[in-house]
Amino acid sequence: MAASSMSRTYAYDNGGNMVTITSIKNNSFDRRIVLKYNKDSKLLDTAMITLKDGTQETRIYTYQSNATVKENIYSGNDSNSITYSWTGGNMTSAHSTRGINAFTNVKYYTDMAFQEGDFNYMNALIENGYVPVGKTANLVQCNYSGNISYKFNSNGYIKQVSSVNEGYPTVTYTYEYTCK
């Protein structure tokens, strides 16, 4: 099986309040995501997604409190709503109107603060090109995909993160930092 290639281009408009992410997979258009941010709060207001088959989806974010964000998702005649909740700075639930809670098995390290190399953060960034909802206070220790471990470089930055779940392949991300 040949490896697939993926590239993303990020274009910033409207004084930095809008980002267009264009993804190319195997030399063909894969998806375009237009992110619009609130000028005052710098929080994500909407994500408009166009897939290679022409399907369009709109996600609207409502910040109900410091501990709750609601994501309304519209695609054609279909809609869904996900309410994300935080406790003690860590995301503890993501309840969908379809009855799904993807955060049922999430646990956090109590002695390691969040970094952008966090496993859940990186999965969202790799899958979407952006992270749809906020960060957590601590690094994820365990989630639906298994136990998560981190290795750090001499500066304290994550250099590798692995997720191990019995019966599934280990997922490992290795980071390389370039200082300018």
Description:
With 180 residues, this protein is mostly beta strands. The protein folds into 2 domains: 1-54, no CATH class; 105-180, no CATH class. The protein has 1 helix and 13 strands; from the N terminus they run E-E-E-E-E-E-E-E-E-H-E-E-E-E. It has one helix at 119-128; strands at residues 6-13, 18-25, 28-37, 44-51, 56-65, 68-75, 78-87, 90-96, 107-113, 138-143, 146-152, 158-164, 171-174. Strands 1-2-3-4-5-6-7-8 form an 8-stranded antiparallel sheet, with no helix packed on it. A 5-stranded antiparallel sheet has the order 9-10-11-12-13, with no helix packed on it. A hairpin with a 2-residue loop joins strand 10 (138-143) and strand 11. The chain is globular, with a radius of gyration of 17 Å.
- Radius of gyration over all CA atoms, rounded: 17 Å
Query: What is the count of helical runs?
Result: 1
Distance between the termini: 37 Å
Unreliable spans are: none
Q: State the major sheet.
A: 8 strands, antiparallel
Secondary-structure-derived class: mainly beta
**Percent of residues in helices:** under 10%
- Assess the beta-strand content as a share of residues: over 45%
Write down the domain tally. Answer: 2
The overall pLDDT average reads: 84
Q: How are the strands of the largest sheet arranged?
A: 1-2-3-4-5-6-7-8
Label the overall shape. globular
Number of strands: 13
